[in-house]
Amino acid sequence: GALLVSERIDREELCGALSPCSLSFELLLERPLEVYSGAVEVQDINDNDPVFPSSQARLEISESVAAGARFPLESAQDPDVGINSLQTYQLSANPHFVLDVHTRGDGSKYAELVLEKELDREEQRELHLVLTALDGGSPPRSAHVQIHIDVVDSNDNAPVFNQSTYKASVRENTPSGTLVARISAYDLDDGPNGDIVYSFSSHTPAKVRELFALDSATGELRVKGQLDYEETKLYEVYLQAKDKGAVPGVAHCKALVEVMDVNDNAPEVTVTSVYSPVPEDAAPGTVVALLSVTDLDSRDNGLILVRVSDVNDNAPKTSQDSYDVYVLENNVPGIPILNMSATDPDLGRNGHLSFSLLQGDTTVGHLFSINRDSGTLYLLTSLDHEDQVEFSIMVQVQDGGSPPLATNVSVSVFVTDLNDNAPTVLYPLPNSTSPYTDVVAPGTPAGHMVTKVVAVDADVGYNAWISYTLLQATDPTLFSVGLHSGEIFTARQLQEDEAPQHTLVILLKDHGEPVLSASATVFISVTERVKEVLTDLTDVAPAHDPRKHVTFYLILAVILVSAAFFITIVSVGIFKCYKWRQSKELFNSSRSTLYRTPGPFHHVDAVRGGFTPPSFYHQVYLTTDSRQSDLCKKPFTSSPLGSRQNTIRNGEPGLYHQIVGTASRLPTPAE
Predict the structure, then answer these.
(1) Residue-level pLDDT at 435
(2) Rg of the chain taking only CA atoms, in angstroms
(3) DSSP strand E in 50-125: where?
């Protein structure tokens, strides 16, 4: 398990200026198979000296330059990173210049000469300085460059840039010659002193000069080499403008060029074989190889998109397992009554859903239909609540996979009632050719029920709730009708001089919206004798009506049944009285014979002699300590004395105690 170095490691060769320098690897463990990702960070050592582009540098500075003027110097390069990289610059001692060290955005350092005391050409025509670059190693490494400064006559005006910093962005892999930025400077002098030449400043590294080109006349900065976002994301390009005077004036600016990433790196797949060759009896699920995919691009350009093909492994799912739909009866045919919704997370044909009705009931197909694509359920015909209240439908939702998957959903359609049926009178029969006449005798008190109007309503609920009101009557003060029962009562006592025939018109109304009604006509005869009424009915009824004697036969049947019931009750009563008298006589005779005061012939002797059954002896013996003895509860075996023993239950208390006392004096079995 030791990780060894197989060759000499050079951090600068592996990672360049990138820090930290990390080398990734994967570790494979077998039995059980496990994969771990690891990384080795190569740490930097101070094994490189700073290096200047050249060993000497020459500057021409006018004696008229004011104190505070700055002059950029070429930077040294150190391939080490971190503290081992270039950290500072030092300038040899002199009376005119000091050194100002700056830090770039990437952390690198560069230096500028700052004029601290004005120059005088007559006093000193040239100066010799030494610039030293130091890194942060221990001990530090260094590099030196000789700076030769020529003091020249004054140039009235130096070039001036219209801005000190230019910003631009360019996509990596941009073809050579693409314009990045255009810098511009002006000089107020005329002639050669006012002509400007653009160039890279001494601060610009050699790598940058290989990637970008600067037009010395126009100041156009263009792409020259191959830009790579994965290598460097931002370049700092230092530029200068000089005029063509005998003592040229110089101006400096900086261009920041941002490199934008493009998807120019294909994913790299690394396959690590685990078992090779694979044995033919390898178990399913055995890992054969490991695949590692990397992409050097950044952000979305560096994601790995693995396309997964769809398998029809999801059945359609509806928003509800079942639906309850309520439809008013007498509906318009063809109306939609339900919009079913279903989803399937599968893709393409596997997620395309279709709806259909399962024809469990043949009537469903004639009454309902469903749109195959949208799942809208339609009602094809008008429904009647009185015909059928509920319909059960099974809808199947199926996807387009192979094989297809389906889900069944139950739909219950309830037909709600409308008030479309008026009350129907069952009694008295409407439109009958032989109207029935109810009979009430004179002198009947108030509150007597004479007859009842019977009606039904095919609707339900409030639509079927019938109320009865008296609409017309021969004498409105004589009869009244129950509001909800339809029962007709006498409103007052009937007098002898009442009209013999009365006609009542009853109005029947339901409670629906709108209200529907019907009427019933009731005929009532006030008479003493039923015979007179029957005679009147016979005169009124047609001779060919076979039902004219139905009422008479019904009355006769009731009378006969009542008489038979009365005779049965009387017979049962007579029989019970007879049995009671017989048992009483038997009880009286037993008191005078068997149950007299014991004499020389003791009860135990009767048992020994066989005159009394043993069962009787045992029953008496067990009741000595209880008035609620088994003697009064358990039947005895049949014997000549059985009927007499039964009479003890109804006998006198004194007789019962006498028997118990006799039993308590019985001898023991040993005697």
Answers:
(1) 76
(2) 63
(3) 56-62, 70-72, 86-91, 97-103, 109-115
| CA distance readout (Å), 252 to 107, 159, 197, 363 | 21, 9, 12, 95
CA neighbor of 159 nearest in space, from 112, 122, 198: 198
DSSP 321: S
Q: Please tell me the pTM assigned to this model.
A: 0.42
**Cα–Cα dist 589/129, whole Å:** 167
Query: Phi/psi of residue 159, each to 5°?
Result: -60, 155
Q: Is 285 left (phi over 0), alpha (psi -120 to 50) or beta?
A: left
pLDDT score of 302: 80
Output the pLDDT for position 296. 82
* DSSP codes joined into one string, 246-312: SS--EEEEEEEEEEEP-S----EEEEEESSSSPPTTPPTT---EEEEEE--S-GGGG----------
Which residue shows structure tokens 């009422």?
551
The parts of the chain modelled with pLDDT lower than 70 are: 153-156, 529-549, 586-671
Matching residue, tokens 């008013």:
328
Q: Distance (Å, rounded) from C-alpha 355 to C-alpha 408?
A: 10
Q: Which two tokens stand for residue 587?
A: 């009880």
Euclidean distance between the first and final Cα of the chain, in Å? 110
C-alpha distances in Å from residue 647, one per residue of 353, 355, 569, 643: 91, 86, 27, 7
Q: Ramachandran region of residue 40, left (φ > 0), alpha (ψ -120 to 50) or beta?
A: beta
Length of the chain: 671
Q: Are strands 467-473 and 501-509 parallel, antiparallel or unpaired?
A: antiparallel
Q: Contact at 8 Å (CB) between 252 and 72?
A: yes
Separation in Å, CA 558 to CA 452, 548, 562 = 20, 18, 6
Q: Are 129 and 57 in contact (CB under 8 A)?
A: no
Do 274 and 290 meet the contact criterion of CB atoms below 8 Å apart? Answer: yes
Q: Which tokens belong to 411?
A: 């739909």
C-alpha 451/C-alpha 465 separation (Å) is 20
CA distance 451 to 479: 11
CA distance 408 to 391: 16
Structural element, H or E, at residue 509? strand 501-509
**Amino acid of residue 373:** D
| Alpha-carbon gap, residue 332 to 342, rounded angstroms | 27
Distances (CA, A) of 143 to 48, 57, 76, 205, 208: 11, 14, 8, 16, 21
Residues 6+ apart with CB under 8 A from 191: none
1: its two tokens: 């398990």
pLDDT in tens, 429-455: 887 777 788 899 999 999 999 999 999
Domains located in the chain, CATH noted? 11-41 (no CATH), 56-152 (2.60.40.60), 160-260 (2.60.40.60), 268-302 (no CATH), 317-416 (2.60.40.60), 424-526 (2.60.40.60)
* Pairing relationship of beta strands 250-260 and 234-243 according to DSSP bridges: antiparallel
Q: Where are the alpha helices (DSSP H) in 518-650?
A: 530-540, 550-591, 603-608, 614-621, 642-646
Instruction: Please report which helix (H) or strand (E) contains residue 365, including its range.
Output: helix 362-367
Closest CA to 191 of 243, 153, 241: 243
